Amino acid sequence: MHPMLTIAVKAARRAGSIINRASQNLERLTVTRKAHSDFVSEVDGAAEEAIIKTLLDAYPDHSILAEESGNSGDASKSEYQWIIDPLDGTTNFLHGFPKYGVSIALLHRGVLSQAVVYDPVMDELFTASRGGGAFLNDHRIRVTKRTQLGESLIGTGFPFRDFTHMEAYLAMFKDVIPRTAGIRRPGSAALDLAYVAAGRYDGFWEMGLAPWDMAAGCLLILEAGGMVSDLEGNEHFLKSGQVVAGNPKIFVQLLQIIAPHLTEQLIAENRPTARQVK
Ligand code: IPD
Ligand code: CA
Ligand code: CA
């Protein structure tokens, strides 16, 4: 295993034990609301602190982009940037709904190079290094070989905080549903993407994501032989927060159904000048 991935795994497991411990006493947690339907507990902060400490103890010069504490270190000086979601699926976690995980990715000169998604409930560790394949608990994983959308299980995430693109999303949803074998919305984008890599879904799409929701999951998919793009089929997914993914055959079919529903605003958000990964 690449030494930087080993450190990321250590960080993810530490966060996982903090999360597991806290899950045994959910009533005791202090929950605050960051925005509409955007809740956070002290667990998110504690897990993030443990991750950052583990990474910086090993690599003090690296820079960080983390959901709860934002940017630290000097991204313009360091070639390495860690992108961290300490607890993806916080709403699930707070309700005792067991679908949440830790997501840690490393960008090297802006290129996704290491990825960890860890599900502490199932003790499932998804890892990937650029060029080295994707793994689930040390077993190689690959995307599915299914070619027919009608036989495919598709994951998605629908708007629940920001409703700007609700109409466009519902139009996509309406068009996708009857063409698939089923749609799932468990509520953790990081796990959703890892599930595409592991062949549990044949495809996935969502918009309005942050880089920390998807950076690790996207590398897992690419290393598992899948495809990832933004909703226009280009590579600006980390910047735009829009993602379509799947095995190569299903990815193309999904994109063809979704693309006609893109609004001018969605297309504008998708261009390179839109939201930057800092
Ligand atoms: C959320 C989850 C969810 C997705 C949201 C994310 P959080 O992350 O990944 O599945 O639909 O857009 O914000 O807030 O639980 O870390
Ligand atoms: Ca998240
Ligand atoms: Ca989170």
UniProtKB/TrEMBL annotation:
Pfam (any one): Inositol_P
Domain of life: Bacteria
Reactions catalysed: a myo-inositol phosphate + H2O = myo-inositol + phosphate
EC number: 3.1.3.25
Keyword Metal-binding included in the entry's annotation: yes
Annotated keywords: Hydrolase, Magnesium, Metal-binding
SUPFAM superfamilies cross-referenced by the UniProt entry: Carbohydrate phosphatase
Binding site for Mg(2+): E67, D85, L87, D88, D213
MF-aspect GO terms: inositol monophosphate 1-phosphatase activity; metal ion binding
Name assigned to this protein: Inositol-1-monophosphatase
